[in-house]
Amino acid sequence: MTAAPTAPTTSNGAPQQIQSNKAKAGRTVRFRIKRCDGPGKASRWETFDVPITPNSNVISCLQWIAAHPTTAEGTKTTPVVWESGCLEEVCGSCTMVINGQARQSCSCLIDNYAPNDGDTITLEPMSKFPVIRDLWVDRARMYHALKRVQAWVPIDGTYSLGDGPRESPEKQLTRYKLSQCMTCGCCLEACPQYNLEEDESKWDTAFLGAAPISQARLFNEHETGKQLKDERLEALMGPGGINDCGNAQNCVKVCPKEIPLTESIAAVGRSATLQAFKKFFQAK
Amino acid sequence: MTAASTVVKTEARLDQCLSKLAELRERYSKVRLADTATWTNQTLSYVRAVGDMLILAEAIALGGKLRKESRGSHYRTDYTERDDANFWKASIAKFNGTGSDVEFGEVRAGLVEPRARTYGATDTKKEEKKEAAAAS
Fold first, then answer.
1. How wide is the angle at C-alpha A131 spanned by C-alphas A130 and A136, nearest 5°?
2. I need a labelling partner for B59 at 20 to 30 A (CA). Which of A60, A97, A145, A260 fits?
3. What's the pLDDT at A21?
4. Given an 8 Å threshold on Cβ–Cβ distance, is A78 in contact with B40?
């Protein structure tokens, strides 16, 4: 029986730095892309073989496909349509489902996802939003949700309002994490309680989702934003509010900004309970 | 443009760039779209923008060629010093229907008198080198 291989050591016995698993240079990666010509049209899969340069990401590969719109079978096709903005994982525009999981495509490095020649990467649009074309979906419902919870600080005019109220460093640390939300939709895509809803009239009662709930907490904890706390909680305690959360905890796992979404949902749940008591005992 | 017309420029390279741009404009006049769909056609909007990019690129490269001096982030390896006498002027590009005509226009004097930018360097060796280069 051969001995199990041990980690390489240097001459003085210290563990040697294992060379990072460098992906093969000059390789080709196969992209399987779910395409669709427009709302309500049938979807189809198209395959492309893309030559990979160092530090390629999914978007640089989509750009290559746009310049060489021929499938792996040799059929001429159209460039794939997709949305992107910053290309540095701060805007949230380029969300798509890559190898079955929602993530930003600009930060999806091919060397990590497909290190070997001939590896496959699948690209699909988010399934919880109506497809406009190919990988581009309509996210209007996300912004509708932010309106439902009034995710802003109310001001009564655009004249100078003077200095804002002070905030303790501890609170700033908590709120800063929540403020990093870029409305990318990954949490909504991953949530089993959040479903595709194409009928806009149903948006007011459909589940809000993790991101707007966390944004409500962000603004409830703002010294001026808390003026709208009662109204935000009203929306969160109604249909499609926090009651719809099933505690799958997928949201916090997929958030690209690592926002503590489940903490926010719990905090909002607590606020809602206190609010319910408050209203019960209110003399009105 | 990235190769010929960012900070460090040379006349010969800029000429190469301008003839390449002329070639691209000629090809652009016969451009065909890889996507002829009438719904959400990103190729169409991008191709339209490329036409304008070609015009602006020519204006930039031509302005860089005509400015025979170095000034700020415009550095000419063939004219390494700033020439206030001839080029303390604004480059003005006017579209003439096909390309750009570049002229030099008046600059309003500000509150600061133009002077050499040494960025606080007090290295006498460097100054000596500069004087030697100017003298040669």
1. 125
2. A60
3. 52
4. no
The pLDDT tens digits of the residues spanning B6-32 come to 999 999 999 999 999 999 999 999 999
Looking at chain B, the whole-number percentage of residues with pLDDT higher than 70 is: 90
Pairing of strands A131-133, B8-9: unpaired
The reply to whether residue A79 touches residue B39, judged by beta carbons under 8 angstroms, is no
A:B CB pairs within 8 Å: 23
Task: Decide if A63 touches B, using CB distance below 8 A.
Answer: no
Q: Report mean pLDDT in 10-residue bins for chain A, 284 residues.
A: 47 46 80 97 97 95 97 97 96 97 97 94 98 98 98 91 91 97 98 97 97 98 95 97 97 98 98 95 79
User: What does DSSP say about strands B8-9 and B75-76: parallel, antiparallel, or unpaired?
Assistant: parallel
Amino acid letter, residue A234:
E
Q: Looking only at Cα atoms, what is the longest distance across chain B?
A: 66
Q: A78 vs chain B: nearest CA distance in angstroms?
A: 5
Question: Looking at the partner chain, which of A79, A132, A136 has a beta carbon nearest the beta carbon of B35?
Answer: A79
Neighbours of B66 (CB within 10 A): 14
CB count in 10 Å sphere of residue A220: 22
| Rounded-to-integer distance, Cα A113 and Cα A52, Å | 12
Which residue type sits at A64? W
Cα–Cα distance, B88 to B95 (Å, whole number): 23
Contact state of A69 with B34 under an 8 Å Cβ cutoff: yes
Sheet with A28-36: list strands edge to edge: A43-51, A28-36, A120-124, A95-98, A101-104
Print burial letters for B102-134: b (CB count within 10 Å at least 16), e (below 16). beeeeeeeeeeeeeeeeeeeeeeeeeeeeeeee
